[in-house]
């Protein structure tokens, strides 16, 4: 009987747990709804794939650049390198009501290690600013 109850509890715990992607999506949607003027005018379209953000020692970045550009730089022993998880990022497409119109928005969200939103950047705006600088 104890094994039966333990098996049922284990099943419910496993089936109710959210994946990291689901946790990120839930927190991003919560963030958007809390920061919109009209939460009723929000429509989810598409989430990108959740990606991890690590701190990378500068020497490894230089090594990667050297490999791409065929530059001779000292090679760093990678066996002792430990990366620290900084958080996650994901792109998200959604519609919101602005001035009685539905507008399509593309955002890049940065999340901490607990999947809370740290910041967001509208991608269209970021690309426009970059193109103006060129």
What value does the Rg take, in angstroms?
21 Å
Report the uncertain regions: 68-77
Q: Which geometry do the CA atoms define?
A: flat
Strand content is 25-35%
Instruction: Please work out how many helical segments DSSP would assign.
Output: 4
Helix content: 40-55%
N-to-C series of helices and strands: HHEEHEEEH
Described by strand count, sense and barrel closure, the largest sheet is: 5 strands, antiparallel
Distance between the termini: 71 Å
Q: Can you count the beta strands? A: 5
Look at the structure and give the mean pLDDT. 75
Structural class determined from secondary elements:
alpha+beta
Short description:
Helices cover 40% and strands 31% of the residues. With 134 residues, the chain is of the alpha+beta class. The chain has helices at 2-16, 20-35, 58-69, 123-133, and strands at 42-47, 51-54, 85-98, 101-111, 117-122.
């Amino acid at each position: 009987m104890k094994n039966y109850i333990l098996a049922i509890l284990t099943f419910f715990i496993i089936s109710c747990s959210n994946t990291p992607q689901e946790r990120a999506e839930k927190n991003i949607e919560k963030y958007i709804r809390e920061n919109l003027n009209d939460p009723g005018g929000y429509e989810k379209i598409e989430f990108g794939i959740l990606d991890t953000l690590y701190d990378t020692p500068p020497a490894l970045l230089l090594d990667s650049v050297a490999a791409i550009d065929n530059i001779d730089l000292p090679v760093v022993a990678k066996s002792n390198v430990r990366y620290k998880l900084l958080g996650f990022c994901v792109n998200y497409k959604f519609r919101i009501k602005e001035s009685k119109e539905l507008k399509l928005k593309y955002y890049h969200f940065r999340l901490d290690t607990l999947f809370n939103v740290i910041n967001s950047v509208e991608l269209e705006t970021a690309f426009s600013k970059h193109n103006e600088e060129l």
